[in-house]
Specification:
Blueprint lengths: L1 H16 L10 E10 L2 E11 L4 E5 L6 H8 L6 E9 L2 E2 L5 H6 L2 E4 L11 H8 L9 H7 L1 H5 L10 H13 L5 E5 L7 H16 L4 E4 L3 H7 L2 E6 L2 E7 H6 L1 H7 L3
Helix pairs in contact: 4-7, 7-8
């Protein structure tokens, strides 16, 4: 326990001294962000950075603040950011509302996927491209997601869970995507479908899309990620190369119970 406490103190110190903002070499950075649901203090001084084309696994036990951190980065209405700075390619996301952050290239794929009822697969994709700036054209999307091409005329909400996750990711790519936020992409899916989604996330990495992935299946996320940030009770408990977490069973047991 003493070693874990020391590790946490070192991680906190790294977070406090990390570079920030437009002058940072990081593609994305957040610095000392604090966010609340009403009076509930959820995100408690989180700081980390991402280089361009990196995949970062944001990990922690249930209730650690992972999804809340993603929502804060995406500038969702809740939780409310009350302190701290969030930068993407020199742009101050912390000064933006959610629609402005989306226009700046931040796209959150939530756990519930939010496929629009009553619309086909293709209509869901077209709707994502109504406003500028646009991302991938439909032909390119269908090339990378042939199953969606086969089901382009099918209502999106009638797809399988794995296919809906594909559609949610494809809809993000239809925008001018600069930072992809994936919240629990494997949640509730059968193992065979999880393997398909893993291939999609791996392809996203190969395409050089900067990504933050929150996933309860920590091992799967770490195998895809370049670096990892572990949250504990709304604070950064550890950050560093993903390979170090995979190799450190004591660290995983302490913060991830795996």
């Amino acid at each position: 326990m003493a070693m874990a406490a020391e590790t946490q103190r070192e991680a906190a110190e790294q977070a406090r001294t990390a570079p920030i903002g437009a002058e940072s070499e990081a593609y994305f950075s957040c610095r000392d962000i604090h966010a609340y649901y009403g009076e509930s203090y959820i995100v408690q001084g989180v700081s980390f950075e991402i280089r361009e084309k990196e995949v970062l696994a944001l990990l922690g036990r249930n209730g650690a603040g992972k999804t809340s951190t993603l929502r804060t980065i995406a500038r969702a209405p809740s939780p409310e950011l009350k302190k701290g700075e969030i930068w993407l390619k020199g742009k101050p996301l912390h000064k933006m509302e959610c629609y402005k952050a989306a226009q700046a290239g931040v796209v959150l794929v939530p756990e519930d996927r939010r496929i629009i009822p009553g619309l086909t697969v293709e209509e869901n994709l077209i709707l994502a491209q109504i406003e500028e700036p646009r991302g991938w054209e439909l032909g390119r999307i269908y090339e990378h997601f042939p199953r969606l091409a086969e089901r382009r005329s099918q209502e999106g909400t009638t797809l399988s869970g794995g296919e809906q996750q594909m559609l949610a990711v494809a809809r993000a790519l239809a925008r001018d995507l600069k930072l992809l936020l994936l919240d629990e992409p494997y949640e509730g899916l059968a193992p065979v479908i999880v393997r398909e989604i893993e291939k999609i996330v791996a392809e996203i990495k190969e395409l050089g899309i900067t990504t933050i992935i929150v996933e309860q299946n920590a091992i799967a996320a770490l195998q895809l990620a370049d670096r990892a940030v572990i949250l504990d009770m709304g604070t950064v408990a550890w950050q560093g190369p993903a390979s170090e977490v995979l190799e450190n069973a004591a660290l995983r047991q302490e913060y991830l119970a795996v």
